[in-house]
């Protein structure tokens, strides 16, 4: 076995590999750019080597620089993680020439399966069902439009070397095909150094289900069940689970056997994933094969007990698989939520900055006992596991140069319902401040009836949130629980304020029992009867809720028992109350005396400023190009400019007809959120 492994990656996946290597007694080497000097993976590794400036194309994907780091450290093997050089055949060849083991598949498998065009042809030759499309290279936008018409709209325009949603566009007409071709080509060149594009039919109402395979160099190959990855936004997975709530055992077996056969056809050795599109009748079509570790691999590990990183390292070391297909048992249910640095209230646009607060829920390692990667027995009811794979820490920076992922939060339980319930609690207890993040959206998905039922497609987000995410409207029962909790919390804070030293003589302040709680447009008149063990909060209609908590003023997380049910609230202080975040809702809660509430109702409502004649930058990013000129008349939907952020190009369009009166930015300018790009008459 190897003594030292270099991880040619960064962030959470580098930290993930380091954990397994440490468990195996293998020393680790991290590489880092200028932006990652203080990164968590650098701190965790046994040693670290600097490889260049922040942009990935000047550091993490420069093969010569990574090879220099390998020579400096004396590493015997390299784990590429995902993204960057993980599916780069030239990198694997360079390692082989240096006599360094690649913790991944052979070069031939990378070349044939890592290239989407070649892999489609191989799949067809192997009689694997594939989606109709054009497998040849496409030279320009005109050819892309012609091919799209021959296939029939809608079509998917994809980068041949793509992954992670980069270089992908759906086109429904000629104009979108033309624009999508150029944007996909640009993103592919920037992210992968390969701008080849192909086009295939876009299957409507699809589910995205993938099979995890594991093969060794001795001709053995197995599949470890499937992962349901249908909750996607802009072709980027957001929520994954294993197993799929849709598949039956017969379909699972057919997909698994087909995936293993495809892997063996190219001499695959290591962990890999074969992705399928599955329609409502359980017909499945080969999509692509990822010749690397997937972002969502933890859910497979949780239901099988197999450490995929460990297996990859052992296969790279020449060991045969110690697991047969009969050993693979799918136990319980696992769900993964990807926590991204993006603002759901701004159409999920990237957010960068410092993590002023980062407190993930406590990890719980529970479930059936493991021995040699196999489940031993069943888990008792009520047992759950919580896992958080991350590459950040409180006080660290979320950089504009890399993927916006903060963490992958996973829960495991004996049933899907219990795994969802555990995830709801874990999300409620996850504290993140300083940047925009998608925790409210993830909480909303976990409560959405379609997700809870398991009846979703890859169009889930587009269909259920067509106007973007605007928060959650909580039902009255939940509002009453929060009103009771915050009233009791406000009383505690008021009592504390009466004890402040230095007050004037003869000015003793008394805390009353009657309060008016206002939230989400509703007001509740309550009376608080407090005792040593908690408070009974009575509403005007005669109902009451018993509240108990150890919350103290200043705590940013409150765990409140309301009639015996636990309520987890993220708490921020505002004038006259709290900012409360719970179950995807972001609430301003005011707790006032009856007289204060009466006066508050007379206050005028503050209106937001008029920005209807301004184009504001929706995210921190770089202006790639400006498509219009001063004095030009623009139509609704017309492209105005392109902003690049976190490796993604975003085309900003006119919301209505108008004339450009002023342009404040040009190509190459770096802008902050809400900077004015242009003005209109």
Description:
The protein is of the alpha+beta class. It is 27% helix and 33% strand. It contains 17 helices and 41 strands. Strands 14-13-10-11-12-15-24-22 form an 8-stranded antiparallel sheet. A hairpin with a 5-residue loop joins strand 10 and strand 11. The radius of gyration is 27 Å and the shape is globular. The termini are far apart.
Keywords:
681 residues, alpha+beta, single chain
**Morphology call:** globular
Overall residue-averaged pLDDT value:
91
Roughly how many Å is the radius of gyration? 27 Å
Helix content: 25-40%
Number of strands: 41
Largest sheet: 8 strands, antiparallel
How would you summarize this macromolecular structure in one to three sentences?
This protein is 27% helix and 33% strand. It is built from 17 helices and 41 strands.
Write the layout of secondary structure elements.
Layout: E1 4-7, H1 11-23, E2 27-33, H2 40-44, E3 47-52, H3 63-73, E4 77-79, H4 89-98, E5 101-102, H5 107-114, H6 116-125, E6 133-134, H7 141-151, E7 155-163, E8 166-171, H8 174-192, E9 197-201, E10 207-215, E11 221-233, E12 236-242, H9 249-265, E13 270-278, E14 284-290, H10 297-304, H11 308-316, E15 333-340, E16 342-343, E17 349-350, E18 353-354, E19 357-359, E20 369-371, E21 374-376, E22 385-390, E23 397-398, E24 405-413, H12 416-428, E25 431-433, H13 439-447, H14 449-453, H15 460-464, H16 476-498, E26 514-519, E27 522-531, E28 534-539, E29 544-549, E30 557-562, E31 565-574, E32 577-582, E33 585-592, H17 594-600, E34 614-616, E35 621-626, E36 633-634, E37 639-645, E38 648-653, E39 658-663, E40 670-671, E41 676-680
Parallel strand pairs: 1-2, 1-4, 2-3, 4-5
Antiparallel strand pairs: 6-9, 7-8, 7-9, 10-11, 10-13, 11-12, 12-15, 13-14, 15-24, 16-17, 18-23, 19-25, 20-21, 22-24, 26-27, 26-33, 27-28, 28-29, 29-30, 30-31, 31-32, 32-33, 34-41, 35-37, 35-40, 36-39, 37-38, 39-41
Helix pairs in contact: 4-5, 5-6, 7-8, 12-13
């Amino acid at each position: 076995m190897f003594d030292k492994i270099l991880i040619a990656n960064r962030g959470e996946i580098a930290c993930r590999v380091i954990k397994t290597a440490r468990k195996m007694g293998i020393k680790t080497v991290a590489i880092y750019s200028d932006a990652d000097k203080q990164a968590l993976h650098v701190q965790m590794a046994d040693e670290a080597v600097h490889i260049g400036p922040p942009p990935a194309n000047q550091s993490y994907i420069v093969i010569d620089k990574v090879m220099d780091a390998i020579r400096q450290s004396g590493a015997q093997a390299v784990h590429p993680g995902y993204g960057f050089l993980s599916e780069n055949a030239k990198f694997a060849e360079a390692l082989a020439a240096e006599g360094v083991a690649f913790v991944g598949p052979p070069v031939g498998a990378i070349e044939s399966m890592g290239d989407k065009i070649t892999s489609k042809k191989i799949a067809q030759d192997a009689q694997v069902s594939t989606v109709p499309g054009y497998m040849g290279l496409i030279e320009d936008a005109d050819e892309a439009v012609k091919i799209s018409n021959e296939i029939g709209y809608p079509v998917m325009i994809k980068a041949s070397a793509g992954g992670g949603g980069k270089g992908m566009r759906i086109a429904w007409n000629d104009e979108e095909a033309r624009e999508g071709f150029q944007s996909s080509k640009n993103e592919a060149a920037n992210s992968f150094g390969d701008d080849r594009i192909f086009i295939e039919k876009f299957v409507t109402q699809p589910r995205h289900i993938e099979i995890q395979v594991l093969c060794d160099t001795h001709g053995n190959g197995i599949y470890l069940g499937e992962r349901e990855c249908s909750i996607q936004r802009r072709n980027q997975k957001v929520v994954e689970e294993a197993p799929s709530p849709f598949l039956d055992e017969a379909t699972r077996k057919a997909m698994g056997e087909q995936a293993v056969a495809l892997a063996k056809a190219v001499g695959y050795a290591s962990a890999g994933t074969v992705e399928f599109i599955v329609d409502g009748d359980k017909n499945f079509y080969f999509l692509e094969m990822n010749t690397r570790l997937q972002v969502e691999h933890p859910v497979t590990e949780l239901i099988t007990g197999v450490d995929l990183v460990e297996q990859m390292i052992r296969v790279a070391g020449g060991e045969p698989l110690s697991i047969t297909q009969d050993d693979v048992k799918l136990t319980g249910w696992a769900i993964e939520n990807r926590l991204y640095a993006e603002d759901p209230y701004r159409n999920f646009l990237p957010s960068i900055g410092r993590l002023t607060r980062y407190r993930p829920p406590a990890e719980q390692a529970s479930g059936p006992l493991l021995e040699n990667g196999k489940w031993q027995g069943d888990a008792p009811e009520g047992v759950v596991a919580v896992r958080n794979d991350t590459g950040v820490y409180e006080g660290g920076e979320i950089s504009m140069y890399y993927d916006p992922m903060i963490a992958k939060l996973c829960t495991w339980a004996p049933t899907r319902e219990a795994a969802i319930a555990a995830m709801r609690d874990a999300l409620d207890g996850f504290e993140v401040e300083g940047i925009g993040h998608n925790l409210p959206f993830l909480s909303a998905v976990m409560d959405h009836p379609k997700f809870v039922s398991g009846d979703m497609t890859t169009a889930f987000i587009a269909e259920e949130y067509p106007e973007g995410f605007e928060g959650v409207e909580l039902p009255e029962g939940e509002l009453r629980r929060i009103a009771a909790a915050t009233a009791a919390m406000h009383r505690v804070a008021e009592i504390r304020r009466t004890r402040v030293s230095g007050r004037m003589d003869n000015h003793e302040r008394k805390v009353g029992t009657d309060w008016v709680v206002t939230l989400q447009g509703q007001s509740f008149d309550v009376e608080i009867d407090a005792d040593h063990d908690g408070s009974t909060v009575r509403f005007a209609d005669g109902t009451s809720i018993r509240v108990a908590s150890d919350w103290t003023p200043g705590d940013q997380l409150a765990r409140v028992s309301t009639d015996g049910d636990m309520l987890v609230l993220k708490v921020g202080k505002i004038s006259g109350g709290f900012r409360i975040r719970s179950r995807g809702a972001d609430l301003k809660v005011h707790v006032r005396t009856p007289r204060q509430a009466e006066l508050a109702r007379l206050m005028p409502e503050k209106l937001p400023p008029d920005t209807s004649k301004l184009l504001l930058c929706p995210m921190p990013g770089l202006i790639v190009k400006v498509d219009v000129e001063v004095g030009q008349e623009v139509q609704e939907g017309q492209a105005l400019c392109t902003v690049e952020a976190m490796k993604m190009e975003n085309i900003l369009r006119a919301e209505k007809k108008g004339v450009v009166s002023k342009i404040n930015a040009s190509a190459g300018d770096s802008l902050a959120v809400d900077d004015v790009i242009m003005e209109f008459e």
